[in-house]
Amino acid sequence: MTEIQQIALFKGKEIRKTIYNNEWWFSVVDVCGALTDSLDSGAYWRKLKQRLIEEGSEVVTFCHGLKLAASDGKYYETDCANTEGIFRIIQSIPSPKAEPFKRWLAKVGYERVQEIEDPELATKRTRALYKAKGYSDAWIEKRMRGIAVRDELTNEWKQRGVKEEVEYKILTAEISKATFGMTPGQYKKFKNLKRENLRDHMNDLELINK
User: Fold this and answer.
1) What residues contact residue 33 under an 8 Å CB cut-off, 6+ apart?
2) Which of 13, 25, 98, 173 would you call most buried, defined as having the most Cβ atoms within 10 angstroms of its Cβ?
3) Where are the domains of the chain?
4) How many CB atoms lie within 10 A of CB 10?
């Protein structure tokens, strides 16, 4: 099971990423969209993938199907690649945006290494990100406490034998229904959210109840 899923931004373009085997893996489709401005980045990647396979390129072997959240709030298996794999794929995409994207990837990868060595850095960066988005200090404090409580809860579930991703979703849905009368998916629709993190769009009272 993937540990953390987030959406990063490259020049205003959303790049879904997830931690797998203790490193960041990025959505190849999102990367193609960021580099090519294609109206259908999924189709672009399918064509590129087919061409690479026909050419006998090993680039495609760097991809791994991981479940990421889509715009409808559901999770689908998506071609992802780690930093090395994305670098290899970028070489096959003619784009003037390639070099800035490589530097961005290198920065993200370096920050992940730092966070592994010093987990407190991840907390500091999360606080700084929320601050930059305009959240109040009081809201940030509640959100950070919520993250800590969630980690403790999932660790407890893990110790009690919960392993599959679907099991975590079921337990989370039951807590959400008991608290708000809706599952997380229903609550996101209620708030008109798509890929956004539901907890990032809760007010102080909701965070306390969550």
Assistant:
1) 13, 41, 44
2) 25
3) 5-117, 121-209
4) 19
pLDDT of residue 209: 59
Residues 166-202, buried b or exposed e (16+ Cβ, 10 A)? eebeeebeeebeeebeebbeebbeeeeeeeeebeeeb
**Separation CA 62–CA 85 (nearest Å):** 5
* Owner of token pair 């087919």: 50
Say how far apart CA 81 and CA 61 lie, in whole Å: 9
**66 exposed, middle or buried (CB, 10 Å; 0-12, 13-18, 19+)?**
buried
> Hey, what amino acid is at 7?
I
pLDDT digit string, tens, across residues 66-97: 988 887 777 889 999 988 888 888 888 888 87
pTM as predicted: 0.51
Q: Let me know: does 61 contact 173? Beta carbons within 8 Å.
A: no
